[in-house]
Structure formats: structure tokens, C-alpha cells
Amino acid sequence: MKIGFLYFHHMHHVFHSLPIAYELSSLGFSVDLIITSQSILKTISGTKNTYPKQSCNIVFLKAPFSFRYFNISKKKYPRPKVMMGKYADILNGYDILVGTSFDTSRIIDDVNIDRPKYVFAFHGLGVRDYGYNPSLKKYDLLLLPGKKMADNLKKLNIANSNNFAIIGYPKFDLYKKNQNFKYSLFKEKRKTILYNPHWNKNISSWYEW
After folding, report:
1. 119-169 pLDDT, tens per residue?
2. Which has the closest alpha carbon to 170: 13, 2, 11?
């Protein structure tokens, strides 16, 4: 079985599915990390020592000529739809493709990549309306962080007993396994709370607090 993890978007997507890829490769599965930008490559390279037994292979898909030489807007990565269309033959060589972007479900209809099974790994614990888009029905398997999300998706007839699994929050696995985190920032031996406010001002608690 050949499994490909899609990293065609912003670098923050890496942390939400990379632990899954590392674990699968550690178990002996053939896993490719399919990337399209140097920023993603740099992000992945910084996590390799976290899983010493992993054997993931990096597949770097070359961006179109126009992006490499005429990227006036200085975008970090080429357009995912362009890249999936350009490399459809390669992507069709996989048995399973794993993604974390809601855009992927919309792109599927526009590119000729119909051989692999599609798996979606949610990249967050609390999602807004876009997280319950009916397009998620296109995925063969949904990897969910918790029961509440599963219940919400079932109410909307997006999830059923055969197309989802509750796996927790993979991003925490990187933290738990990274030896660099095993030290204290403070002299006092008390619990430390990391407050990470949402970037969207309309739903963030930062501005009120």
C-alpha cells in the first residue's frame, strides 16, 4: 500500500497530519510526504528527530515556470489546484491520499485523480461553519479530533458509521515526543498555561480579555 500526504498549502498544515505520517511509516507502511514549497520542506526538516524510527520519503513536486520566475506577489507556495492538475498522473499512483485542507475536497472534482482513496485529517479542535461543509462527503475517511465533532457531522449527514474515526489531536504528539520541550521556562514548579488566541478578531477572546 502506497500512502501520500498532501502538503500543498501553508506550512501550518504540516503539524496536523505529519505525526500520523511518521507513525504509519514507523509501522512499516510506505509513506510519501508530497510537498510543493521550500517553506514546507524546512518545516518538515525541523521535526525529523522527533520520530527517529520514521522512514517517510519526501516527494518535491516542481512548481510551474511562471511561479518560479514570475511570482510577483511572493506567495509561499504554488496554487494547489494547478499542482494537483499538473501532477495528476503521479498522484493517481497512490492508494491513499491524506490532506488537511478544505480546499482539497473542492479541487477533487476539477482534476483527474480518481484512483486513490481520500482521507481528511482535521486541523483543529474547534472549527467554524466551513468545517462542516458537505464537500467532506467526498472523503472515504474522516479523522476527527473528538466525539463532539463526530456528532455534529453525523447530524448533518456528512459522517456515518463507516467513514470516520476519532483519533484525538495529532499536533500534541509532536510536543510529547520532542525532547527539546522537556525543560521548564520558569523556576517555580507550577502548571503553565499557554494561551493561544484565535487569529480572527470576530471570534477571538484576546480583544475582550
Report:
1. 999 876 656 666 677 888 889 999 998 888 889 899 989 888 889 999 988
2. 13
Average pLDDT, integer, range 57-84: 80
Which pTM does this prediction carry? 0.85
